[in-house]
Amino acid sequence: MRIASFNINGIKARLPRLLEWLEETRPDIACLQELKTSDETFPAQEIEAAGYGAVWHGQKGFNGVAILARGAQPQEVARGLDGEPEDEHSRYLEAEVNGLRVATIYLPNGNPCPGPKFDYKLRWMKRLRARAAEIWAEEVPAILAGDYNVIPYDRDVWSVGAMADDALMQPESRSAYRALTGDGWTDALAAIHPAGGVWTYWDYQAGAWQRDAGFRIDHLLLSPIAADRLVTAQVDKAYRGREKASDHAPVWVELRD
DNA sequence: ATGTCATATCCGATATGA
C-alpha cells in the first residue's frame, strides 16, 4: 500500500491539482496539510467523487489538515495535541485506516526566530513527541506524516548558508526532530535516500524551483511494525513544476501488505 | 533581490502567514 503526504497550500485554489494527483497516482492514504479553509468549506463532495473517504480539521485562512483513504472511511482517533488547551491551530489529526494508525501533521513554521512563534514551535514539537510515545506504547503499525517544517540534516538543504538563520534549521528544531527518530521512529525518506539531496519544498520566490534551490521538510515517520514493511519512499517531484502548483511536492512510502 | 502566492478584508488596496 502507498501512503502519501502533501502540503497543498490552499485546498480551494489547489483542488484541480489535488484531484489530478489523486487520479494519476492513486495513493491508498493521503495526508494533507495547509487546507487554509474552514470545516464547512472543505470540498468533501469532490473528494468523495474521486473515490476517497476523508476526515478533516479545518481553519479559516490558514493551517488545516486532512486524511484521505481510497475506498474507505478513516476513523478519527484524535484531533489536536494535548498539553496546551488554549492552542486553537488546526495542525494535528489522527485516524485509523484498515488497521494502520495515521497522523497528519502541520508543524508550526517558527519564523521569525528567536521569538514567540519559535517558542510555540518548540512547545508543539514536545507535545507531538508525547503523543508519539502514546501511539508507540500501543504497538500498532503507525505513520506520522506531514510538513514538519524541520530540515533534519545539512544534506537536506541546497544551501546551508542561505538557511542558517531560519527556524527550520535551528539546532533546537533539529534536536526536537531527532528526539523523535531517537525514540525509534524511522524517517522513511532518509532511510531510502541516505546520501540526501532529496527536496520536498521549493520557495515560490527568487526562481527557487528553476534553480532547484529546495530542501526536505515533509517527512514520513514509521513505527517499527510499519518500518519492517517499508519497500520504498519517494517524492512526486514533477508535480511541483505544474501550473498553479503548491510550493511542496507530494512525498510517499510503499509498505508491504 | 524588498523576488511569490493564497487568503482575508470590504471591492482595490493592504495585512498576514508562509
From TrEMBL:
Site for Transition state stabilizer, residues: 149
Positions bearing the site annotation: Important for catalytic activity: 218
Endonuclease/exonuclease/phosphatase domain sequence ranges: 4-248
Positions marked as site (Interaction with DNA substrate): 248
Record flagged with keyword Hydrolase: yes
Co-factor(s): Mg(2+); Mn(2+)
Database matches in InterPro entries: AP_endonuc_1, Endo/exonu/phosph_ase_sf, Endo/exonuclease/phosphatase, ExoIII-like
Family note: Belongs to the DNA repair enzymes AP/ExoA family.
Any single GO BP term: DNA repair
Protein name per its UniProtKB record: Exodeoxyribonuclease-3
Keywords in alphabetical order: Hydrolase, Magnesium, Manganese, Metal-binding
Note on cofactor: Probably binds two magnesium or manganese ions per subunit.
One Pfam assignment: Exo_endo_phos
Cross-referenced PROSITE patterns: AP_NUCLEASE_F1_4
Gene3D superfamilies on file: Endonuclease/exonuclease/phosphatase
Residue sites binding Mg(2+) per the record: 7, 34, 147, 149, 247-248
Enzyme Commission number(s) from the entry: 3.1.11.2
The species this protein was found in: Sphingobium jiangsuense
Stored CDD domains: ExoIII-like_AP-endo
GO molecular function, one term: double-stranded DNA 3'-5' DNA exonuclease activity
Transmembrane segments: none
